[in-house]
Write a structure and sequence with these properties.
This protein has 252 residues and is an alpha/beta fold. The chain has two domains: 7-155, Alpha/beta knot (3-Layer(aba) Sandwich); 170-252, tRNA(m1g37)methyltransferase, domain 2 (Trp Operon Repressor, Chain A, Orthogonal Bundle), CATH 1.10.1270.20. The chain is 28% helix and 17% strand. It is built from six helices and nine strands; from the N terminus they run βαβββαβαββαββαα. A five-stranded parallel sheet has the order 2-1-6-5-7, sandwiched between helices. The chain has a two-stranded antiparallel sheet with strand order 3-4. Strands 8-9 form a two-stranded antiparallel ribbon. It is elongated. Bound molecules: 4-(1H-imidazol-5-yl)pyridine.
Length: 252
């Protein structure tokens, strides 16, 4: 693992400085230092050819807003892309980002993330783009924050990015469910106690309690996540308990 870069991520942006601080903290910083990922920040303006280094222009046919120039984008992408690259344009029209898509992207060896303006890019630039990805149905000032989101989600799945004590928590036993409640010391805060089962030392009971809490939370807060789920026998039993058992209201 040491010294071997698992993935390269090239980010094409008009504001590469936006990425500096977020990528110099925490797990992303450590992953870069360990050589798990190599991130290159590339200024799209470097690929403008005219003497004003113009990167956008007025739309043909008129209308509001500026359009990013096709030649600038095409030159930049061609300069960085390799045979095996995935060129991704961050756009509200794109494929919705999900953990499944993150897993797909994490399997690539070279991602090129193109950040644009919402007004858009010249249609001809799509000839160098492999896929569009959206992080949600809202409009931002540009694709930079979506590119940070994709980068962060992908990096934590790369081998060696998380420490031995951490796990990406993918197909673990609560996979596809919301997290169960967590507690740490002290045992009591302002009269609020840690659930008895967690200090019982009974590993099986703890696992069962956590699974039940995760199911309960998901049912109450994100029932949509359960629609596609194949419940196992234990999960069916726990759901029955949740639905048909009167339990104290504990905010969970
Ligand atoms: C991109 C929003 C991806 C959501 C790009 C303005 C965007 C976006 N997901 N908004 N430029």
């Amino acid at each position: 693992m040491k010294g071997k870069v698992h993935m390269q991520i090239d980010i094409l942006s008009l504001f590469p400085e936006m990425f500096v601080s977020p990528f110099e903290s925490s797990i992303v910083k450590r992953a870069r230092e360990k050589g798990v990922v190599n991130i290159n920040l590339i200024n799209l303006r470097d690929f403008a050819r005219d003497r004003h280094q113009q990167v956008d222009d007025y739309p043909y046919g008129g209308g509001a807003g500026m359009v990013m120039k096709a030649d600038v984008i095409m030159r930049a992408v061609k300069a960085v892309r390799k045979e095996h690259s995935q060129v991704i344009y961050l756009s509200p029209r794109g494929r919705p980002l999900s953990q499944a898509l993150v897993r797909e992207l994490a399997a690539a060896s070279h991602l090129v993330l193109l950040c644009g303006h919402y007004e858009g890019i010249d249609e001809r630039a799509y000839t160098v783009i492999d896929q569009e990805v959206s992080i949600g149905d809202y409009v931002l000032t540009g694709g930079e924050i979506p590119a940070m989101v994709v980068t962060d989600a992908v990096i934590r799945l790369l081998p060696g990015a998380l420490g031995a004590e951490e796990s990406p928590e993918e197909e673990s036993f609560t996979g596809g469910l919301l997290e169960y409640p967590h507690y740490t010391r002290p045992q009591e805060v302002e009269g609020l106690k840690v659930p008895e089962v967690l200090i019982s030392g009974h590993h099986q009971n703890i696992e069962r309690w956590r699974k039940k809490q995760a199911l309960k939370r998901t049912l109450l807060q994100r029932p949509d996540l359960l629609l596609e789920r194949n419940f196992d026998e234990e999960e069916r039993q726990l759901l029955m308990e949740i639905i048909f058992t009167r339990e104290e209201h504990d905010g969970q």
